[in-house]
Amino acid sequence: MSSSESINSYHKPDNYHVEHHQVDHQFTNNTHHSNISKVHTHGEGNELVTIGGHTYYRHELMSAFGGSLNPGPAPFPKFNINPAPLGLFAFGIGCLLMGLFNARVMGITIPNLSVAVACFYAGIVSMLAGILEFFTGNTFAFTLLLSYGGFWFSYAAIFMPSMGIAAAYAESDQFENAVGLYLIGWTIWTFLVWSLLLKSTLALVVMFFGLMMTYLVMACASLTGDMGVSRAGGVIGIITSIVAFYNAFAGVATPFNSYIVPPVVLLPEIKFGRGRK
């Protein structure tokens, strides 16, 4: 069975986006590349893409799309399911509440309610969505959602008296510094994720840049004890949650169920030097 037949042998979900390009449907001698383990484009007009040893036309592939947490061209999953919006909505709610409490909206300083949401919605649902991404073959989303699910559980555990984490620092002034170092670790992790999205979509890049800045500013707030910095981190978190909701909505909105279908803005690919042939 050819790659074209294998791709078209099952229904392409409506909530995934397709690479739209004008293509010449004649294979060239460059169809089979000697180095088939890497993702590369070839053909007379770069209309062919080889992924994992299988060659596809560009129009047969999903394009980068925030609504499916897909960072680049990839074959359609064999399972007609898109768990990404579920994980994005969970992430957005958790980020929104964390931002509201850190910004001291309505004068609230006790984070207990956000801890409950971090565990029972943001944490559990993110991990469930990540596990479902395993079956779609989306390694990026699988890694991302499970990791951030772990973040929500670990972040909530810091403020749970039964975990004894805060109590362990009760006789010292190390607690805020420890939380700051914890957030710096997540800043570095998010920077690595963000660096993998520079060829994807504007919404994805903005969302993870905002998340990275949220972690960084909140880490600075913990290390310095500055309330103004903490509030700034909360505001950035609120903005990040809005972009997360945008991506989640894009993943479930279609012309069949909504009058509003968010546009997808693809980032331009920058060519460095002379491309491989």
Describe the protein in words.
The protein has 277 residues and is mainly alpha-helical. 50% of the residues lie in helices and 4% in strands. The chain has a 3-stranded antiparallel beta sheet. The protein is elongated and about 70 Å long. Mean pLDDT is 81; it is low at 1-13 and 19-37. It is found in: Membrane. GO terms for molecular function: acetate transmembrane transporter activity. This is Mug86. It is a multi-pass membrane protein.
Please outline what is shown here.
With 277 residues, this protein is mostly helical. The chain has seven helices and three strands.
N-end to C-end Cα span? 27 Å
Major β-sheet profile: 3 strands, antiparallel
- Average pLDDT, rounded to a whole number, is 81
What sequence of helices (H) and strands (E) makes up the elements?
HEEEHHHHHH
Structure classification: mainly alpha
Question: Could you give the count of β-strands?
Answer: 3
Number of helices: 7
Family: Belongs to the acetate uptake transporter (AceTr) (TC 2.A.96) family.
Keywords: Membrane, Transmembrane, Transmembrane helix
Pfam families: Gpr1_Fun34_YaaH
Transmembrane segments: 84-101, 113-132, 152-170, 179-197, 203-223, 235-256
Helix and strand topology:
Layout: H1 3-7, E1 40-42, E2 48-51, E3 54-57, H2 84-102, H3 112-136, H4 139-158, H5 175-195, H6 202-224, H7 227-252
Antiparallel strand pairs: 1-2, 2-3
